[in-house]
Specification:
alpha/beta, Rossmann fold, 8-stranded mixed beta sheet, 13 helices, 8 strands, globular
Amino acid sequence: MVSYHTLDVDGVGVFYREAGDPLSPTVLLLHGFPSASHMFRDLIPELEGRYHVIAPDYPGFGQSSCPDRSEFDYTFDHVAETVGGFVDALGLASFALYVFDYGAPIGLRLAVARPDAVWAIVSQNGNCYREGLGEKWAARAAYWAHPTSEARDSYRSAFAPETIRHQYMDGTEPGRVGPDGYTLDAFYMARPGNDERQLDLIYDYRTNVERYTEFQAYLRESQVPLLAVWGRNDVSFVPAGAEAFRRDLPQAEVHLLDTGHFALETHAPEIGALMRDFLARAGGQAERRPLVN
């Protein structure tokens, strides 16, 4: 059964979902944009029988606090720092990571900072290679190079309900995606002040691309077990990003599913089965290792 909690992390209320036996190996689920931990509602039942599952909402997302921009810097470094504080507050000494979209640069920052704590990574459309960036990222790069107020304002369309709906629907078969996820995301994005917080993160995404070589070095040096399970029809993070993991991790397991960006909306049982098999082989039944700061 899933339980719901809020934990104070340096004055920020971090909401999270928890399921499974706390004595079992932990899997930390990190969501993407514009979503929150509710995106894992169909995956958690697939995992909780074998694993201790934790799924937080980032500051400014879902049910977590939305601090004012004058009190909280909406950067990926700061969000990752908060997630790290959350992990420490829960006393999670060892965990596997599930990273999706924004969750990839957040989770990989966490892994770089504490490599001995991460015993496996599952990347679901969670990119850290330039070849994994779809065509839209050329316009983002131009914005990052010339960050005018007009260019910043142009990204307000990213929070429109129809844009969010398309993120869920594009690349999927008709009738396969229910309205619950994108409707709730649109509600969260429409809260007062959230547009400016999210625009800060869109601009700061450039720092993730700048750190790709660092993330790749971590993968290469750690040889952490990795499963890449992607929606092959994603236009944001294209399949080349999944295949690229094998360059640094020759033993990486790659599966491309016939779906889009939000693959859990259509393929949660398939992804759950792949994860259970992969995590068991990755050492998910092993004794937990101590946290290394």
